[in-house]
Amino acid sequence: MEHTRIIIFTGGRLGQWALDLIEDGDLLIGADAGALFLADNGYRPSISLGDFDSVTPEQLAFIRAMSGETHDYDPIDKDYTDTELAWRMALSRNPQNIVMVGALGTRFDHSLANVHLLRMAQQQGITASIRDEHNCIQLAAAGILNVVNEGYTYISLLPLTERVSGITLTGFQYPLQGATLEIGQSLGISNKLLGEQGAIEVRDGLLLVIESRD
């Protein structure tokens, strides 16, 4: 069966909001404690993976029983975090869309590394986002990203590369026309959509698009 969307559950903040994102036909990947979260809530991950250092042996046995397949990694002899392993697994399936939840939490280093993973999806031509109960994070590259109003209060733009040029905003409270943003500038913080949809055009560079609410 071809899956057009993959949802990755990893081990950061998770809740009912994350389960509400699941739709029929989604392929579910659980990374470490994210796999346990799915299993505990009655969902069967198609793939569970990680070093599983966040779960007990009994919980790991439960994950195995609930999963389509399980991939174990040595906690020391591995090059990537469990989240990146899940991300690479998702990319290898070449879906149209990847959504990752549980990727933001108390470890800012992990959160920032997870945001950087969006670049790999962009390079492969796959639409991707990171979501939690307050944020939706996407990446805009050369071209146009259409943003649909999903009830977030703010939309902020932050460069992921040193400089992003040719930024034009349509349908926003504070429009831009061919603007340039450099790392360290806050010009793109706390914009708003005027209606149900807006467009973000980028000529060069990689731009983080962060929809948020308090």
TrEMBL record:
One Pfam short name: TPK_B1_binding
Domain Thiamin pyrophosphokinase thiamin-binding as annotated: residue spans: 143-208
UniProt-recorded Gene Ontology molecular function terms: ATP binding; kinase activity; thiamine binding; thiamine diphosphokinase activity
Organism domain of life: Bacteria
SMART domains named among the record's database cross-references: TPK_B1_binding
Coiled coil stretches, renumbered: none
EC number: 2.7.6.2
Keyword Cell wall biogenesis/degradation annotated: no
GO-annotated biological processes: thiamine diphosphate biosynthetic process; thiamine metabolic process
Top EC category: transferase
Protein keywords: ATP-binding, Kinase, Nucleotide-binding, Transferase
Protein name (Swiss-Prot/TrEMBL): Thiamine diphosphokinase
